[in-house]
Structure formats: structure tokens, C-alpha cells
């Protein structure tokens, strides 16, 4: 197959196939860093050969086969070849051709299992949160160090150090590239879900910089979430997270003004612009989560998001149900942020005075001390109560706290509308 721009084709194929290739190699060489190096060797060969010979009919299989042969060569060259043979289940007398046959079988089978092992390894709790985020995006998202740095607005060397440190930690701690034991699964699954949702949230509401959203991160998190839900179909929270992300992602287009690019708050959004396909998919994932048992934190948040998705207008939203769901969520996964969100729902359902009572009770929370949404929510409730001066001060405080330029402009605009 020939194409006009083989380099772009190589990049596209790498983005799609890299996780599968690295996952298969990691199971064989038992080293995430080495697996990535071998896969990238195959990428380099593709960049050298495809522009000359043309893109193969099955480029993903070409990368897999090339990486597999690189793995065989690597094992043959290494001084500890016998130990590698033991790791693939052979005794020390197995011939090199037998080792290659073993690699052939292992790399071609159990692709889903390999991806799941790689995902759980990249999100291992032994790693820092930053390390898990960077390594997951690198290994399973196929993102370059430059792309990850740009997405999180940090220097490229910082991201590179996080990835190197994460891989080194996995090696030093001798973290096996395998599925966790049944007793460890809840904690490990929680770490995987957290990483995927952190990626999504950074894309949905960027914490810093000039962009209100970074849709590419949302798309990557959704892809990872869908893969995970397909690999662990019996885990309700995996479906709950997918439901939450699908429904939230459905509002992407409506979240910014098409003319100015400024943020549009949820209650002011044009709901006809919401993506109905994503909403249907989200509601279907929520139904699957509910069918599997009691909803966990992600499922409950998806149920809350569904209240918005099902309402034809802000006035039609079932705020009382939303307030009740937040109360359950506060019991299942208590946090000051959940309480702050509950205050919004309570304020809409039962009046701003009730919401303000909850917000004022959070004033001493250390975790919310520099959280711009606390004064923003308080300012909104005060404005509804006609306390314009106090509300303006709260919005100005929120503007000082946020590191996102678009959000700062939104808060200052809200303050300006309240007069001097």
C-alpha cells in the first residue's frame, strides 16, 4: 500500500498499535522500559523503510512482527539469556529456536490480557500520581513526551524525568507485569480508574494555561476507559467511569462560545449542541453499571451527570434527585469537593440559603483553601440572595486563585456584572 505521506501514516499506526506491541513485549521481557525500547526500534525501522518500500497492507502486524524479532535478538545478545528463558517458562536447556517459537505464540495471543497487564502496571500505586499519568499516556496512549508536556503545561524534561523515574521504580521494586491477585484487585483497579479520570479531568477543565479545555486528553481518557471496561466487563465502576466521561464529553462543543471562545457555564449551554450519541452511550454504560450492583463513586457521579443529560432545559433538571445522589456520594466517597458540589444542587433544589449554609461550613477546609471553585460557588449563591457586594468580592477572589486564563476571565466578568 502506497500513500502520499508515509511518515504521517507511521505516526497514526504507532498511536493505534503501540500499546498492543508494548504490552505483548512487556509480558515476554518482563521489563516495561525494555519493551518500550524494542517497540520504538520497530518504529524507527518503519520510518526508515516505509517511505521507500511503501506502507504494508497490515502495518500493525508489521510493527508487531518487527518488534518481536527485535525481542528475540535482544534475548540472544543478553548475557543472562538463560534467566530470560526461565521467565518464558522454559528450562535452561531449551534451544534458541524454541525460545523464538515461544515468543511467537505469546506475542500473538491474549492481546486483551496483555493490555490489561500493561494498564495495571503503568498505574501501579507504587508510582507517584504524576508518574502514573505520564507513563500511562506514553505506553497506552502512544503520546510523545512533547505531547504530554504540552497537555499538562510542564517542561518536556520534567515529563521525561517522570517517565524515566516511573520505569526505574517499577524495575527497582520488582513490580511484576501481571494482573493483581484477586485480593489486590479493588485497590489496583481504583488506581487505574483514578489515573484515567485524572487524564479526562485535565482535558475537560484545564487547571492552568490559556485553554479552557484540552479535548485530546478527554478523547484519550475515553479510549482508555472503553478499553478497560471491555477487558473487565464485570466491574461496575469501570462502566460507571465510562458513563461519566461519555456524558460529560457530550457537552464539549457547548462549553465554549463559538464566536469568542469564552467558557459557557452548564446552565447557560445550548443543549441542542450536546452530542446525543455520547449521551446515549453514557446512559447505556450507566445501565450496565447499575445492573452489576450498587453504584460506586464513579457510577454515582455518572447518575448525577445523567440528571443533566436527561433534562431538556436547566429548569427541567431534577435537582432534588441530584442533591440526594450527592448525599449518597458524600457517604461513599466523602470529600470537601463533593460537599461543595452538593451545595450547588441543594441551592438549586431548596434555595440559595440552604446551599450557602453548606458552603460556609466548608470555609475552614484546608483542602479548599486555594480552590477557586469555593469562592465562585459562594459568589453565585450570594448573588442569588441579592448580596451583590459580597458576591463580587468572592468572584474576584476566585479569579486570583485560578491558574486558568479563561476561567479567570469568566470570574472577573461575573464580578463586573455585579457593579462597583
UniProtKB/TrEMBL annotation:
<dbReference type="Pfam" id="PF04542">
    <property type="entry name" value="Sigma70_r2"/>
</dbReference>
<feature type="domain" description="RNA polymerase sigma-70 region 2">
    <location>
        <begin position="20"/>
        <end position="79"/>
    </location>
</feature>
<comment type="similarity">
    <text>Belongs to the sigma-70 factor family. ECF subfamily.</text>
</comment>
<dbReference type="InterPro" id="IPR036388">
    <property type="entry name" value="WH-like_DNA-bd_sf"/>
</dbReference>
<keyword id="KW-0804">Transcription</keyword>
<dbReference type="InterPro" id="IPR007627">
    <property type="entry name" value="RNA_pol_sigma70_r2"/>
</dbReference>
<dbReference type="Pfam" id="PF20239">
    <property type="entry name" value="DUF6596"/>
</dbReference>
<protein>
    <submittedName>
        <fullName>RNA polymerase sigma factor</fullName>
    </submittedName>
</protein>
<keyword id="KW-0731">Sigma factor</keyword>
<feature type="domain" description="DUF6596">
    <location>
        <begin position="188"/>
        <end position="289"/>
    </location>
</feature>
<dbReference type="Pfam" id="PF08281">
    <property type="entry name" value="Sigma70_r4_2"/>
</dbReference>
<keyword id="KW-0805">Transcription regulation</keyword>
<dbReference type="InterPro" id="IPR013325">
    <property type="entry name" value="RNA_pol_sigma_r2"/>
</dbReference>
<dbReference type="InterPro" id="IPR013324">
    <property type="entry name" value="RNA_pol_sigma_r3/r4-like"/>
</dbReference>
<feature type="domain" description="RNA polymerase sigma factor 70 region 4 type 2">
    <location>
        <begin position="120"/>
        <end position="170"/>
    </location>
</feature>
<dbReference type="InterPro" id="IPR046531">
    <property type="entry name" value="DUF6596"/>
</dbReference>
<dbReference type="InterPro" id="IPR013249">
    <property type="entry name" value="RNA_pol_sigma70_r4_t2"/>
</dbReference>
Amino acid at each position: 500500500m502506497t500513500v502520499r505521506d508515509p511518515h504521517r501514516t507511521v505516526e497514526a499506526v504507532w498511536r493505534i498499535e503501540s500499546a498492543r506491541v508494548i504490552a505483548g513485549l512487556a509480558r515476554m521481557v518482563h521489563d516495561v522500559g525494555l519493551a518500550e525500547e524494542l517497540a520504538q526500534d520497530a518504529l524507527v525501522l518503519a520510518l526508515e523503510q516505509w517511505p521507500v518500500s511503501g506502507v504494508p497492507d497490515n502495518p500493525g502486524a508489521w510493527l508487531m512482527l518487527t518488534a518481536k524479532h527485535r525481542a528475540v535478538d535482544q534475548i540472544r545478545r543478553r548475557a543472562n539469556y538463560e534467566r530470560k528463558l526461565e521467565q518464558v517458562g522454559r528450562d535452561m536447556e531449551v534451544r534458541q529456536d524454541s525460545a523464538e517459537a515461544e515468543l511467537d505464540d505469546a506475542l500473538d495471543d491474549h492481546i486483551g490480557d496483555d493490555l490489561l497487564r500493561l494498564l495495571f502496571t503503568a498505574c501501579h500505586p507504587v508510582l507517584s500520581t504524576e508518574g502514573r499519568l505520564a507513563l500511562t499516556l506514553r505506553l497506552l496512549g502512544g503520546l510523545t513526551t512533547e505531547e504530554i508536556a504540552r497537555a499538562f503545561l510542564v517542561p518536556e524534561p520534567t515529563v521525561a524525568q517522570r517517565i524515566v523515574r516511573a520505569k526505574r521504580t517499577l524495575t527497582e521494586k520488582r513490580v511484576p507485569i501481571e494482573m493483581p491477585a484477586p485480593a489486590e484487585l479493588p485497590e489496583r483497579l481504583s488506581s487505574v480508574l483514578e489515573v484515567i479520570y485524572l487524564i479526562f479531568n485535565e482535558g475537560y477543565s484545564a487547571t492552568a494555561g490559556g485553554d479552557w479545555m484540552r479535548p485530546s486528553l478527554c478523547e484519550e481518557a475515553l479510549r482508555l476507559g472503553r478499553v478497560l471496561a471491555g477487558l473487565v466487563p464485570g466491574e461496575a465502576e469501570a462502566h460507571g467511569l465510562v458513563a461519566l466521561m461519555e456524558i460529560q464529553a457530550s457537552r464539549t462543543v457547548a462549553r465554549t462560545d463559538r464566536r469568542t471562545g469564552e467558557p459557557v457555564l452548564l446552565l447557560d449551554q445550548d443543549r441542542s449542541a450536546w452530542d446525543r450519541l455520547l449521551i446515549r452511550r453514557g446512559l447505556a454504560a450507566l445501565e450496565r453499571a447499575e445492573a452489576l450492583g450498587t453504584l460506586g463513586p464513579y457510577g454515582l457521579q455518572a447518575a448525577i451527570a445523567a440528571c443533566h443529560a436527561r433534562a431538556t432545559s436547566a429548569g427541567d433538571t431534577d435537582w432534588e434527585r441530584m442533591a440526594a445522589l450527592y448525599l449518597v456520594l458524600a457517604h461513599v466517597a466523602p470529600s470537601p469537593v463533593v460537599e461543595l458540589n452538593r451545595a450547588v444542587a441543594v441551592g438549586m433544589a431548596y434555595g440559595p440559603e440552604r446551599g450557602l449554609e453548606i458552603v460556609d461550613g466548608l470555609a475552614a477546609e484546608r483542602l479548599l483553601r486555594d480552590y477557586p471553585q469555593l469562592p465562585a460557588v459562594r459568589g453565585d449563591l450570594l448573588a442569588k440572595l441579592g448580596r451583590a457586594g459580597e458576591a463580587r468580592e468572592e468572584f474576584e477572589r476566585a479569579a486570583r486563585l485560578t491558574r486558568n486564563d479563561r476561567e479567570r476571565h469568566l470570574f472577573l466578568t461575573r464580578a463586573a456584572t455585579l457593579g462597583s
